[in-house]
Amino acid sequence: MNDMPAQPQFDRAAEDLGNIVELGHVNVLVPDQGLATAYYIMGLGLTRDPYLMAGLENMWVNVGRGQFHLPTRGTQVVRGTTGLVLPDLEALLKRLEYAKKFLEGTQFSYRVAGDVVETTCPWGNRIRCHAPTPALFGPMRVGMPYVEFDVPVGTDLAAIAKFYVEILGGIAGVASDERGAYAWANTSAESRVLYRESAAPQPAYDGHHIQITLADFSGPHKKLLERGLITEESDQHQYRFLDIVDVDTNKHIFTIEHETRSMRHPMFNRVFINRNPDMSNRNFVPGYEVGLWALN
Asked: 89 φ, ψ to 5°?
């Protein structure tokens, strides 16, 4: 008789990351750092990086372990929505209401939509803010769990997923929910890029980009190079490509620049400062000025 206790059963595949290990930043150009400060720092309650790009020509904004990069030249708008997790949506609404007076005459807006807060930056970038939800976002308390791109209805979503699997070595698939069908690809243990069908007219691509980091850096580079998709050989640790294509035909599907880095990049896994946006000089308590990006 076997008296050994039954072994617990685990979904081991749920622990797999694939080759894409980081969604580092979303980059959009902005024309005015004052308005960007009013929105991203005062309204959303995020933290300006105190070490890099601290001048007037650019602004890096920390959000958990990711960033927004906001070079101060022109205007770019993501064709979709960036998802954030923020610790207190009620506090967020108060900050956005306060920031409104600094953002008059712009495209700034915000509204409660079910269990999320939907907000638009002064130049039209859409951001969807979620409360910390372990069932959806794990231990994330502050962060960027997804970037969702709008693609035309009828786009071959399976081909997008196949590109991330076969060219970039990622984990990807196709799913649907109450909002329709979408392709998804893991970009770290806590983030994804999504491609969701939308009937809304698509503006021309204006050059905004996302940054990812790969464990196998050279393998995807070789495959992209063979297809003529590399658009910039940045340096030893980085290259860029613009187009997602059908792996079988090389037919263009969607354009979004991927700034692609290796894990040897000097800034990989850099620790970001995140402040507690609800702390002020009037309610200051030593030790509580730092925001926690993950739940204990």
From this structure: -70, -30
Token pair listed for 143: 């962060």
pLDDT interval class at 293 (50, 70, 90): low
pLDDT tens per residue across span 179-224: 889 999 999 989 999 999 999 898 999 999 999 999 999 999 999 9
For the segment(s) 16-262, the CATH number from 3.40.50.20, 3.40.50.2020, 3.40.1160.10, 3.10.180.10 is 3.10.180.10
Which residues make beta-bridge pairs with 241?
Answer: 230, 258
The model's pTM is 0.92
CB neighbourhood size of 75 (10 A): 15
How far apart CA 252 and CA 81 sit, in angstroms, is 22
The domain spans of the chain are 16-262
Residues facing residue 180 across a β-bridge: 177
pLDDT of the residue at 188: 92
Residues 6+ away with beta carbon under 8 Å from 215 = 19, 21, 169, 263
Contact 180, 152 (CB under 8 A): no
